[in-house]
Amino acid sequence: MVKPIQQFLQHMPKRHQVIIASVSILLLLLLVWPSEKASASRDMAQFEQLEPGVRYELALQLGTSFAPIDSDMEYTWVDYEIRSGDNMARIFQRLGFSARQLHDLTQAEDASILRRIHPGDTLRFAKDANNDLMALHYRLSETDTLIIEKTENGTYQSNREAKPTDIRIAFAHAEITSNFWNAGVQAGLSQGQIMSLAELFGWDVDFALDIRRGDQFSVLYEERYIDGQYVGTGQIVAAEFVNQGEVFRAILHENGSYYTDTGRSMRKTFLRAPVAFNRVSSEFNPRRLHPVTGRVAPHRGIDYAAPTGTPVMSSGDGRVIASAYDNLNGHYIFVQHGERYVTKYLHLSRRQANVGDRVRQGQVIGRVGATGRVTGAHLHYEFLVDGVHRNPRTVNLPKAESLPVAEMPVFEAIAAEQLAMIEGRKRFYLAMVD
Ligand SMILES: [Zn+2]
Q1: How far is the CA of 49 from the centre of ligand 1 (A)?
Q2: CA of 122 relative to ligand 1 center, distance in Å
Q3: Ion ligand 1 neighbours, Cβ < 5 Å
Q4: How crowded is residue 283: how many other Cβ atoms within 10 Å of its Cβ?
Q5: What would the pLDDT profile of 307-349 be if each residue is shown by its tens digit?
Q6: Judgement on whether residues 337 and 374 belong to the same structural domain of the protein
Q7: If you measure from the C-alpha of residue 197 to the centroid of ligand 1, how many angstroms do you get, rounded to a whole number?
Q8: HEC profile of 274-299
Q9: 109, 132, 164 — which closes off a domain?
Q10: For the Opacity-associated protein A-like N-terminal domain, which residue ranges apply (predicted)?
């Protein structure tokens, strides 16, 4: 069985400690110096009933309001869910605000955003005892809120509040027993993360055909939190992949790109496989029969069995030197890469590049099909070096670029830290499950 995920959250974010401390001080102030305002006293009564050690939701608009908190408490907040066909005039009418108030509100700098409100979104209105509109909050995204508030001189002023995102580092590890996709799912990775991991190592490993039982991976990745709430995963910060005993490592540098532990770019001239691994039907047995002859004799290319219509990518940057059809190869495309390399893609159901086109690595140039002399849908892929057929999964490809020497000390420090974290968590994980 694939081992389950092990996630460990790193240190508690500082920001939370700060918020907790601020709230404590605030409560203390309210208790020590009670305001003469009745509303504050009412709230104090609530505070006296609080039990120690219990977490309470605070009614205070902490961090979401620029108004002083004691005046904020006198407002009545109304949440309004925007319906299809709503506009601000209609909403104001429905909530009992005047056209005059809407006019004044729309003088605020960012108020034009309110012309593009979306059904399903929520507007929060704050009004005082005279039904005067004191504030309007519109949540623009997970992190951003538009806040329009009445100032002392009676005009409205807008602010955009961006909530900070806390990043925590999570860890996942798995050993592959059935296939890479299942291992990723059982390690708790999302579909997007599984694809990202395959892309990250896709210049070194053919995820469609070269994965074997016993292969392993370890991943450090970001988890994003807003106000203590998990909102999704972020980037992979470091990963290790062991494929048939060979270890590959990728580390995110501060320039946003990934490098091996020795500082070479993960990105190379050629992808190992021209189709996404999750579309290819394969098994661990490498003795595949040729789809026509039924022999295991090696032929000059590699066959990827995949459904008709599966996208076929150019494995490197290059120029299309053939895009045609014949009875043997079906629809086919040849791409020239620099002086020495040519890649060939046969039996396509569709060609999406013409002779003379410049294509980029990963660009879709056609679709898997069953045209030509074949019995089932598959991509036949050939890789030629100086006109000689080579195995694209094992051929030595041009070395990837290294980081500039000047950047190496910074990178080495990052790499050492991330790899130590992977090692530490992996050891802890293995100790837990063994
Ligand atoms: Zn073939």
Answers
A1: 77
A2: 57
A3: 301, 303, 380
A4: 9
A5: 999 999 999 999 999 999 999 999 999 999 999 999 999 999 9
A6: yes
A7: 28
A8: CCCHHHCCCCCCCCCCCCCCCCCCCC
A9: 164
A10: 9-35
